[in-house]
Design brief:
The protein has 133 residues and is mostly helical. InterPro entries: CARD, DEATH-like_dom_sf.
Length: 133
Amino acid sequence: MNDQKRQAIQYHYAALVKGMDAIAVMDNLSGSLLSQPEREFVKESSQIRRERNRELISILFRTREELEPFEGFVDALKNTEKHEIMAAEILKTYTQDNSPAEVEKVSETSPTHAGEIEHDLQTKQPELSTMNA
């Protein structure tokens, strides 16, 4: 998994470890993401849900990017009852962290506009002087 995707998941790591049901999520994971021995290892690794969650995330972090582990994990969360919000939050974090930089706006006092502004000030100047008279 690439670093940006890993960081999006790590940002929500505590919530995932606490609230995810790894076995239910694995039921919705694509078969190419986890081998049968990996699935069995997660299921048998611990009776404690949090430990199973940590193990599943750890395996996904080590999965090659070509297999799209992030996308598969998020899809599995979306398709697992009561996990849709987690999927949305992870995607939101990933999207915000990878949005294109905003284009810098040109200042109104940039050299291209400076002449226009100066011209406007000169044409309005006589109007001001007649008002003061």
